[in-house]
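Hi team,

Below is the intake form for diguanylate cyclase from Desulfomonile tiedjei. Please confirm the fields before the structure is written into the shared record.

FORM ID: S-0412
PROTEIN: diguanylate cyclase
ORGANISM: Desulfomonile tiedjei
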Amino acid sequence: MKVLVAEDNRFFRRLVEASLQQWGHEVLGCEDGSQAWDLLMQDAPPRLALLDWEMPKLQGIEICRRLRALKDRPYVYLILLTAKSRKDDIIKGLDSGADDYVTKPFDPVELRVRLRAATRILELQEDLMAACQAAEQRAQEDSLTGLWNHSAILDILRKELDRSARSGGNLGVILADVDYFKRINDSYGHLVGDRVLRSIGRAMRENLRSHDSIGRYGGEEFLVVLPDCCEGDLISLAERLRKAILDDCARDTQKVLRTMSFGCTCVDGKVAMCLDAIVHAADEALYRAKKNGRNRIEVQLVATDSKCLDVIN
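The structure came back. Fields below:
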Protein backbone atom coordinates (compact mmCIF):
# COMPACT_ATOMS: atom_id res chain seq x y z
CA MET A 1 0.00 0.00 0.00
CA LYS A 2 1.20 3.53 -0.75
CA VAL A 3 1.70 5.40 2.56
CA LEU A 4 2.56 9.07 3.10
CA VAL A 5 4.76 10.02 6.07
CA ALA A 6 4.69 13.78 6.75
CA GLU A 7 7.06 14.64 9.61
CA ASP A 8 9.48 17.57 10.02
CA ASN A 9 11.79 15.63 12.36
CA ARG A 10 14.11 13.90 9.88
CA PHE A 11 15.33 11.22 12.30
CA PHE A 12 11.81 10.26 13.39
CA ARG A 13 10.53 10.31 9.78
CA ARG A 14 13.27 7.98 8.59
CA LEU A 15 12.60 5.66 11.51
CA VAL A 16 8.92 5.42 10.55
CA GLU A 17 9.74 5.08 6.84
CA ALA A 18 12.16 2.22 7.53
CA SER A 19 9.52 0.34 9.52
CA LEU A 20 6.90 0.82 6.80
CA GLN A 21 9.25 -0.34 4.05
CA GLN A 22 10.17 -3.39 6.10
CA TRP A 23 6.45 -4.24 6.30
CA GLY A 24 6.11 -4.06 2.52
CA HIS A 25 4.59 -0.59 2.05
CA GLU A 26 5.49 1.92 -0.66
CA VAL A 27 6.51 5.06 1.24
CA LEU A 28 6.33 8.74 0.28
CA GLY A 29 8.08 11.08 2.72
CA CYS A 30 7.94 14.85 3.16
CA GLU A 31 8.97 17.36 5.80
CA ASP A 32 6.19 19.96 5.89
CA GLY A 33 2.42 20.25 5.60
CA SER A 34 2.48 22.04 2.25
CA GLN A 35 4.36 19.17 0.59
CA ALA A 36 2.01 16.68 2.25
CA TRP A 37 -1.03 18.52 0.88
CA ASP A 38 0.39 18.51 -2.66
CA LEU A 39 0.99 14.75 -2.47
CA LEU A 40 -2.54 14.16 -1.18
CA MET A 41 -3.98 16.21 -4.06
CA GLN A 42 -2.41 14.00 -6.74
CA ASP A 43 -4.67 12.03 -9.09
CA ALA A 44 -3.61 8.80 -7.35
CA PRO A 45 -2.96 9.88 -3.74
CA PRO A 46 -1.61 7.59 -1.01
CA ARG A 47 -4.35 5.46 0.55
CA LEU A 48 -2.98 6.08 4.04
CA ALA A 49 -1.18 9.08 5.56
CA LEU A 50 0.77 9.47 8.80
CA LEU A 51 0.70 13.19 9.61
CA ASP A 52 2.67 14.98 12.30
CA TRP A 53 0.38 17.30 14.26
CA GLU A 54 2.96 20.13 14.49
CA MET A 55 4.51 20.78 11.06
CA PRO A 56 5.81 23.89 9.28
CA LYS A 57 3.53 25.65 6.75
CA LEU A 58 0.48 23.47 7.43
CA GLN A 59 -0.32 21.47 10.55
CA GLY A 60 -1.42 17.86 10.32
CA ILE A 61 -4.70 18.60 12.07
CA GLU A 62 -5.48 21.30 9.50
CA ILE A 63 -4.72 18.88 6.65
CA CYS A 64 -7.28 16.50 8.19
CA ARG A 65 -9.93 19.25 8.28
CA ARG A 66 -9.30 20.38 4.70
CA LEU A 67 -9.20 16.87 3.29
CA ARG A 68 -12.46 15.84 4.94
CA ALA A 69 -14.14 18.96 3.55
CA LEU A 70 -13.46 17.71 -0.01
CA LYS A 71 -16.29 15.30 -0.78
CA ASP A 72 -15.19 14.36 -4.30
CA ARG A 73 -11.71 13.07 -3.38
CA PRO A 74 -10.67 9.43 -2.83
CA TYR A 75 -10.81 8.53 0.86
CA VAL A 76 -7.43 8.62 2.63
CA TYR A 77 -7.04 6.96 6.02
CA LEU A 78 -5.40 9.57 8.28
CA ILE A 79 -3.29 8.83 11.35
CA LEU A 80 -2.01 11.76 13.44
CA LEU A 81 1.49 11.52 14.95
CA THR A 82 2.08 13.66 18.03
CA ALA A 83 3.60 13.89 21.47
CA LYS A 84 0.26 15.21 22.76
CA SER A 85 -1.39 12.60 24.92
CA ARG A 86 -4.09 14.47 26.86
CA LYS A 87 -7.66 13.30 26.34
CA ASP A 88 -8.80 16.70 24.97
CA ASP A 89 -5.99 16.61 22.35
CA ILE A 90 -6.99 13.13 21.25
CA ILE A 91 -10.63 14.24 20.95
CA LYS A 92 -9.57 17.37 19.04
CA GLY A 93 -7.44 15.33 16.64
CA LEU A 94 -10.12 12.75 15.91
CA ASP A 95 -12.76 15.46 15.59
CA SER A 96 -10.65 17.15 12.89
CA GLY A 97 -11.15 14.12 10.66
CA ALA A 98 -8.26 11.86 11.67
CA ASP A 99 -9.09 8.14 11.73
CA ASP A 100 -6.50 7.20 14.33
CA TYR A 101 -3.88 8.63 16.64
CA VAL A 102 -0.33 7.48 17.49
CA THR A 103 1.72 9.12 20.24
CA LYS A 104 5.47 9.70 20.11
CA PRO A 105 7.77 7.95 20.70
CA PHE A 106 5.92 5.25 18.81
CA ASP A 107 5.92 1.54 19.53
CA PRO A 108 6.59 -0.31 16.23
CA VAL A 109 4.35 -3.21 17.28
CA GLU A 110 1.46 -0.84 18.05
CA LEU A 111 1.95 1.08 14.81
CA ARG A 112 1.96 -2.13 12.76
CA VAL A 113 -1.26 -3.33 14.41
CA ARG A 114 -2.92 0.04 13.74
CA LEU A 115 -1.82 -0.11 10.10
CA ARG A 116 -3.33 -3.58 9.79
CA ALA A 117 -6.61 -2.22 11.15
CA ALA A 118 -6.42 0.66 8.66
CA THR A 119 -5.81 -1.80 5.82
CA ARG A 120 -8.86 -3.86 6.82
CA ILE A 121 -11.04 -0.74 6.90
CA LEU A 122 -9.77 0.46 3.50
CA GLU A 123 -10.37 -2.98 1.96
CA LEU A 124 -13.91 -3.05 3.36
CA GLN A 125 -14.49 0.42 1.95
CA GLU A 126 -13.25 -0.71 -1.48
CA ASP A 127 -15.61 -3.69 -1.37
CA LEU A 128 -18.49 -1.39 -0.43
CA MET A 129 -17.68 1.06 -3.24
CA ALA A 130 -17.45 -1.79 -5.75
CA ALA A 131 -20.82 -3.12 -4.59
CA CYS A 132 -22.39 0.35 -4.87
CA GLN A 133 -20.96 0.84 -8.37
CA ALA A 134 -22.22 -2.59 -9.44
CA ALA A 135 -25.68 -1.79 -8.06
CA GLU A 136 -25.69 1.56 -9.86
CA GLN A 137 -24.62 -0.15 -13.08
CA ARG A 138 -27.40 -2.72 -12.75
CA ALA A 139 -29.93 0.06 -12.16
CA GLN A 140 -28.91 1.68 -15.48
CA GLU A 141 -28.55 -1.51 -17.51
CA ASP A 142 -31.17 -3.30 -19.56
CA SER A 143 -31.17 -6.81 -18.12
CA LEU A 144 -31.85 -8.52 -21.47
CA THR A 145 -29.37 -6.82 -23.81
CA GLY A 146 -26.78 -5.37 -21.42
CA LEU A 147 -27.26 -1.97 -23.09
CA TRP A 148 -28.34 1.20 -21.30
CA ASN A 149 -31.97 1.03 -20.22
CA HIS A 150 -34.70 3.55 -21.11
CA SER A 151 -33.99 6.01 -18.30
CA ALA A 152 -30.21 5.82 -18.66
CA ILE A 153 -30.12 6.42 -22.42
CA LEU A 154 -32.45 9.41 -22.03
CA ASP A 155 -30.13 10.81 -19.34
CA ILE A 156 -27.21 10.41 -21.75
CA LEU A 157 -29.17 12.16 -24.50
CA ARG A 158 -30.01 15.00 -22.10
CA LYS A 159 -26.34 15.45 -21.13
CA GLU A 160 -25.14 15.31 -24.73
CA LEU A 161 -27.80 17.84 -25.72
CA ASP A 162 -26.53 20.21 -23.02
CA ARG A 163 -22.94 19.66 -24.18
CA SER A 164 -23.94 20.30 -27.79
CA ALA A 165 -25.63 23.55 -26.78
CA ARG A 166 -22.48 24.71 -24.96
CA SER A 167 -20.05 23.76 -27.72
CA GLY A 168 -22.27 24.54 -30.71
CA GLY A 169 -21.56 21.09 -32.14
CA ASN A 170 -23.92 18.71 -33.91
CA LEU A 171 -25.71 15.81 -32.24
CA GLY A 172 -27.20 12.85 -34.09
CA VAL A 173 -30.03 10.68 -32.77
CA ILE A 174 -31.35 7.40 -34.19
CA LEU A 175 -34.49 5.57 -33.12
CA ALA A 176 -34.41 2.03 -34.54
CA ASP A 177 -37.10 -0.65 -34.45
CA VAL A 178 -37.00 -4.37 -35.35
CA ASP A 179 -39.34 -5.01 -38.28
CA TYR A 180 -42.17 -7.50 -37.71
CA PHE A 181 -40.77 -8.49 -34.33
CA LYS A 182 -44.15 -9.87 -33.23
CA ARG A 183 -43.92 -12.41 -36.05
CA ILE A 184 -40.58 -13.61 -34.67
CA ASN A 185 -42.09 -14.14 -31.23
CA ASP A 186 -45.18 -15.82 -32.68
CA SER A 187 -43.22 -18.09 -35.03
CA TYR A 188 -40.23 -19.04 -32.89
CA GLY A 189 -41.24 -18.21 -29.32
CA HIS A 190 -40.18 -15.52 -26.87
CA LEU A 191 -36.87 -17.17 -25.99
CA VAL A 192 -35.76 -16.88 -29.60
CA GLY A 193 -37.14 -13.34 -29.68
CA ASP A 194 -35.01 -12.47 -26.66
CA ARG A 195 -31.95 -14.01 -28.33
CA VAL A 196 -32.60 -11.93 -31.44
CA LEU A 197 -32.79 -8.73 -29.38
CA ARG A 198 -29.52 -9.55 -27.62
CA SER A 199 -27.85 -10.30 -30.94
CA ILE A 200 -29.15 -7.09 -32.51
CA GLY A 201 -28.00 -5.03 -29.52
CA ARG A 202 -24.52 -6.55 -29.72
CA ALA A 203 -24.27 -6.03 -33.50
CA MET A 204 -25.31 -2.38 -33.22
CA ARG A 205 -22.96 -1.63 -30.33
CA GLU A 206 -20.00 -3.19 -32.18
CA ASN A 207 -20.61 -0.92 -35.19
CA LEU A 208 -20.79 2.38 -33.31
CA ARG A 209 -17.95 4.75 -32.53
CA SER A 210 -16.30 4.54 -29.11
CA HIS A 211 -17.98 7.75 -27.86
CA ASP A 212 -21.49 6.85 -29.11
CA SER A 213 -24.16 5.44 -26.79
CA ILE A 214 -26.98 2.97 -27.39
CA GLY A 215 -29.83 1.89 -25.16
CA ARG A 216 -32.93 -0.24 -25.34
CA TYR A 217 -35.67 2.36 -25.54
CA GLY A 218 -38.47 -0.14 -25.04
CA GLY A 219 -39.63 -3.48 -26.45
CA GLU A 220 -37.84 -3.89 -29.77
CA GLU A 221 -36.82 -0.21 -30.06
CA PHE A 222 -33.26 1.08 -29.63
CA LEU A 223 -32.14 4.69 -29.14
CA VAL A 224 -28.68 5.71 -30.37
CA VAL A 225 -26.97 8.97 -29.33
CA LEU A 226 -24.18 10.20 -31.62
CA PRO A 227 -22.16 13.21 -30.37
CA ASP A 228 -20.39 15.44 -32.91
CA CYS A 229 -22.29 13.89 -35.80
CA CYS A 230 -23.49 15.88 -38.83
CA GLU A 231 -26.38 14.74 -41.03
CA GLY A 232 -24.12 13.08 -43.60
CA ASP A 233 -22.26 11.07 -40.96
CA LEU A 234 -25.57 10.25 -39.29
CA ILE A 235 -26.95 8.64 -42.45
CA SER A 236 -23.69 6.74 -43.03
CA LEU A 237 -23.74 5.38 -39.48
CA ALA A 238 -27.39 4.39 -39.77
CA GLU A 239 -26.63 2.54 -43.03
CA ARG A 240 -23.73 0.76 -41.34
CA LEU A 241 -26.11 -0.36 -38.57
CA ARG A 242 -28.74 -1.49 -41.09
CA LYS A 243 -26.17 -3.65 -42.91
CA ALA A 244 -24.81 -4.97 -39.61
CA ILE A 245 -28.26 -6.33 -38.79
CA LEU A 246 -28.45 -8.07 -42.19
CA ASP A 247 -24.99 -9.58 -41.61
CA ASP A 248 -26.06 -10.68 -38.14
CA CYS A 249 -29.10 -12.38 -39.67
CA ALA A 250 -26.91 -14.19 -42.24
CA ARG A 251 -24.76 -15.61 -39.43
CA ASP A 252 -27.77 -16.91 -37.49
CA THR A 253 -27.80 -20.73 -37.52
CA GLN A 254 -31.60 -20.70 -37.12
CA LYS A 255 -31.89 -18.21 -40.00
CA VAL A 256 -34.40 -16.06 -38.12
CA LEU A 257 -35.08 -13.26 -40.59
CA ARG A 258 -34.68 -9.82 -39.05
CA THR A 259 -34.36 -6.31 -40.46
CA MET A 260 -34.61 -2.89 -38.85
CA SER A 261 -36.06 0.48 -39.71
CA PHE A 262 -34.20 3.64 -38.69
CA GLY A 263 -35.54 7.10 -37.87
CA CYS A 264 -32.79 9.73 -37.75
CA THR A 265 -32.55 13.36 -36.71
CA CYS A 266 -29.67 15.77 -36.33
CA VAL A 267 -29.42 18.68 -33.91
CA ASP A 268 -27.43 21.84 -34.55
CA GLY A 269 -26.01 22.98 -31.22
CA LYS A 270 -26.34 26.61 -32.32
CA VAL A 271 -30.14 26.26 -32.32
CA ALA A 272 -31.97 25.75 -29.01
CA MET A 273 -33.69 22.36 -28.93
CA CYS A 274 -35.44 20.38 -26.23
CA LEU A 275 -35.21 16.66 -25.66
CA ASP A 276 -38.81 15.73 -26.37
CA ALA A 277 -38.76 17.52 -29.75
CA ILE A 278 -35.65 15.55 -30.75
CA VAL A 279 -37.13 12.19 -29.76
CA HIS A 280 -40.38 13.13 -31.50
CA ALA A 281 -38.53 13.95 -34.74
CA ALA A 282 -36.69 10.61 -34.65
CA ASP A 283 -39.98 8.84 -33.95
CA GLU A 284 -41.65 10.59 -36.90
CA ALA A 285 -38.79 9.51 -39.17
CA LEU A 286 -39.08 5.94 -37.87
CA TYR A 287 -42.82 5.93 -38.58
CA ARG A 288 -42.12 7.05 -42.15
CA ALA A 289 -39.48 4.33 -42.58
CA LYS A 290 -42.05 1.74 -41.51
CA LYS A 291 -44.72 3.20 -43.77
CA ASN A 292 -42.40 3.31 -46.79
CA GLY A 293 -41.51 -0.38 -46.71
CA ARG A 294 -39.29 -1.05 -43.65
CA ASN A 295 -35.59 -2.02 -43.65
CA ARG A 296 -34.77 1.56 -44.57
CA ILE A 297 -33.55 4.88 -43.20
CA GLU A 298 -35.53 8.11 -43.00
CA VAL A 299 -34.44 11.52 -41.71
CA GLN A 300 -36.64 14.11 -40.02
CA LEU A 301 -35.53 17.61 -39.05
CA VAL A 302 -36.42 18.82 -35.57
CA ALA A 303 -39.18 21.42 -35.67
CA THR A 304 -37.64 24.57 -34.19
CA ASP A 305 -41.04 25.95 -33.24
CA SER A 306 -42.24 22.79 -31.42
CA LYS A 307 -43.36 23.23 -27.83
CA CYS A 308 -41.03 21.65 -25.29
CA LEU A 309 -42.49 19.12 -22.90
CA ASP A 310 -40.63 16.87 -20.50
CA VAL A 311 -40.07 13.30 -21.64
CA ILE A 312 -41.38 11.04 -18.89
CA ASN A 313 -38.88 8.27 -18.10
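SUMMARY LINE: The CA atoms of residues 181 and 220 lie 7 Å apart.

Thanks, M.
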